[in-house]
Design a protein that fits this description.
The termini are far apart. By secondary structure, this protein is mostly helical. The relative contact order is 0.08. It is about 50% helix and about 10% strand.
Length: about 170
């Protein structure tokens, strides 16, 4: 039997490839099942969610790819009896590739989302035509401040509530 074709040597690379595939499937499925994002209650929330998912899938794919490469290199270049370590300076070509490809992807992502952000700016309600509410976060809670009769904040007639109350189909800012 040829020692280079020994199936036992392929167990670790196959396991690492399986981890990569399962990780990518998990990232995609987890995002599509809606566990990551709240319900969409705005005219443009789905655009932001789609952009978020695209970035999450990219990061998940790259994360699992890099971690699997790390595991592979740990296995492939481990200390072995009779195997002498070698020094390598690196590769300018490889460094250029792993710099240029993410740069191209980030440029594409910036251009891809421009149209969505311009539509969001267009749809974003004006302060004059919407109800303005201030939101204050606390640990495990939100507090909402409404302007009083004078319509201004930071006056004595403001009122607060831990629940957001709005009129149906009213624009809220």
């Amino acid at each position: 039997m040829n020692p280079d074709l020994d199936p036992r040597k392929l167990v670790i690379p196959a396991a690492i490839a399986a981890i990569f595939v399962v990780g990518c499937i998990f990232t995609f499925a987890y995002g599509e099942m809606g566990y990551l994002l709240p319900n969409i209650n705005s005219a443009y929330g789905y655009k932001i969610d789609d952009l978020y998912k695209l970035i999450m899938y990219t990061v998940g794919f790259v994360f699992f790819g890099v971690e699997c490469l790390l595991l592979y290199f740990l296995w492939e270049y481990r200390a072995q009896p009779g195997k002498k370590a070698t020094y390598t300076h690196g590769s300018n070509k490889a460094e250029a590739i792993w710099t240029i490809i993410p740069g191209i992807y980030l440029l594409w992502l910036a251009l891809y989302q421009l149209d969505d952000w311009s539509k969001i700016r267009e749809l974003f309600p004006k302060e004059s035509e919407s109800r303005v509410v201030q939101v204050f976060p606390e640990q495990y809670a939100w507090n909402f401040r409404y302007p009083g009769a004078d319509g201004k904040f930071a006056t004595d007639d403001d009122y607060s509530n831990p629940t957001l109350h709005v009129v149906l189909n009213e624009k809220v800012l």
